[in-house]
Amino acid sequence: MAHVSAAERRPQLIKAAIDLMTREGVAAGSTRAIAAELGVAQATVHYTFGTKEDLYRAVMDQITEDLVAQVERAAPEGAGFEETIAALAGALWRTMSEPATNHQLLTELTMFALRTPRLGEARQGHYRQVIEVTAQVVTETAVRTGYELAQPAETVARFFLSGFDGLTMQHLCLPDETAERIGLRALVSATVALAGGRLNLADVPVD
């Protein structure tokens, strides 16, 4: 059998872990089960990553990287400030509601990381990166549209993401499509108001 280097195995194992835990949950993600998902020996996981926590950290990094890329693509060219925030909300909501985007798995891993000290850095890194990218979108949109921010972009980003996290938790615990659509519109309206402008709630498309 041809030897496969750790560098080649790494993305394979990350994908296997994501596939398994998206399907069965974080609790199912033992190194033995992840190895079986890929069809390799359990020792391969430890050889490639060292510990299960190291693999989980790599999984969080990968999902975060994919999420950030989606956030960066969400801003429509030529759109106004309000339209861009609405587009951002809509794009993020789709990543949360579509299983293939792994947003729910990232939420589960974040909760798991709260009680796993070795994953603390990965948890903080994930949130820091998402905040930075969202703040960058806010800043660049304000500059492009001539929109004068009344609050720092990071403050606006943190506010928006805090509201989005709340809507995400409600969706996971007690889904209600109508309430969620209203909630997204309200979040966009409140974010724009905080940023320094006014917005008619009925004029915000988040579909």
From TrEMBL:
Known DNA-binding region: 30-49
The protein, known as: AcrR family transcriptional regulator
GTP-binding in keyword set: no
Single annotated GO MF: DNA-binding transcription factor activity
Presence of the UniProt keyword Transcription in the record: yes
Residues covered by the HTH tetR-type domain: 7-67
The organism of origin for this protein: Streptomyces nymphaeiformis
Entries under InterPro entries matching the protein: Homeodomain-like_sf (IPR009057), HTH-type_TetR-like_transc_reg (IPR050109), HTH_TetR (IPR001647), Tet_transcr_reg_TetR-rel_C_sf (IPR036271), TetR_C_31 (IPR041583)
Protein keywords: DNA-binding, Transcription, Transcription regulation
